[in-house]
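Question (not urgent): is this output format expected?
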Amino acid sequence: MQNAKFTVNAEKCSGCGLCLDVCPGNMVGGDVLRMEDGQPVMVDPARFGWQGCWRCQHCLAVCPAGAISVLGVSPGQVSAKPNPAIREELPKLMKYRRSCRAFKKDDVDSEIIDEILEAVSAVPTGGNNQRLEFSVVYSRNAMRKLYRAVFGSARQMSLFEPEAAEDFSDLRIYDAPHLFIAHKAPAERFRDGDFVEMNLATAYFELLANAYGLGTVISTYSAELLNESKEARQLLRIPEDHRFMTVVGFGYPKYQYARGIAKQRRIFKII
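Got this back:
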């Protein structure tokens, strides 16, 4: 199709109609996908939005035969369904992870950061608007520049000479060599939802980083400092109309924990 590029492999398609059933545009009253001659077609490929194509790729993802391609993406280009063992390992990870306040001096391999960011890009957004942007500090050297941007060159002298003294503690991310920030220009009508999206991305990133064996620390105070520094925002390429509430400092942890912990929460079961 012209814009959505919705295509169906006629030899694979069984005409099951699952793609129509899961299409969000169809669910909210739109007429996006329909069956013609036993196969799905996209009715108005140029229409995107609430009652049009959401760019969500649900049709591609649900097709059991792998017959659908959309938005230039084919079934062979996306990840497979995760192993069922994840239901045992993910809860363990969530109980094991700890806030890290002591990091090694080594930079994390950029390829590892890239892999985490690719996964975090799938974080849910309202109506699949996909307007979230990420700013990521990839090296300790870049972190030095960010520190100077916030506090000025005079204050950083004692911190970076000698090298062993650096810890970035005034940024409240301790000596983390990397930083992750999810930011967005909040809309007037759905402002609260926009901040929820930023926090979801932060949580996704933080958990994934721990899955890769990295240490993380989440800070709202750091977000306040960076928000107040025009130079820091420019360095991070955060537009003036974008906002953020949290940042994640991350890197290789200096210490390894042997086990998880047990926390108590009040849980109200409505039956």
